[in-house]
Amino acid sequence: MLNAERIERIKTLLVERPHSIREIATSLEISWKTADKYIDELCERDGSVGVHVFKDGMRGGLKIAFLSASARNSGQLMEFLHKRIVGVREKSDFSPFELYQHVDEKMKKAFWEAEGTAFIEKGSEDINNLLQSTQRNYLSFSGDFSWVQSRERGMEVIKTIEAVVRRGARIHMLGRIDIKSLASIERLLSMNEMLGVEAIDIRHIDQPLRGAIVDDKLVRLVESPPALNKTIYYEITDPKWVRFVKDIFWEFHKVSVPAQKRVDEIRKII
Description:
Helix content is 42%, strand content 22%. The protein is of the alpha+beta class. It has 2 domains: 4-67, Arc Repressor Mutant, subunit A, CATH 1.10.10; 93-269, 2-Layer Sandwich (Endonuclease, Chain A).
């Protein structure tokens, strides 16, 4: 079955260079016939892949698959956005809409809420619901971790975090750890001690995104433009863009500072 994962693997191969059907079959560990079927399906589906047959109809003919110009442009777009995101630190320096506008219409939605009001759009979810939907992992892009101490519809978010990790999910958080956020961080770290497992991974870094990735299936990014007096939520389910945002998360993670180390250094000062 040609699923999203195999599509990405095929396109990753073709980004490097054109590949023969046999090479694709070997890389995906499938038969030549299946690989040929997948390539034909991609050609018909969205035109992202093209083929050229050498010695067509003759014995020893060679069928080569390549990435179309439009697909290569998509890769260049991702590279451009990647540089924009990792090259800045403040949330005001990058709007999630710059990414959202390029996602397929069928695999995205946006909604908003005015300050001090309930959610406007029917079916929209708060942080608690997003956390509760997590089965395996929740990756959080944060500013100062203030959302950890918040309450939504009478429910403490930190209680939801505890319930999620108790059932075996892992939570990874990136954000700014300073004197202001110290209480939130220490409360989360104490939860690891209480549970006896490192279920909550927190690291310090200044980065421009706000939002989360749930189970490698859903990205929700958030922004609050000062001129609008509203909070806008962008949800993305396109596997290609979910993977793009997830890769950025782990890139930030590699160069960030472990929470306990950061806390220990702050405590030496205060």
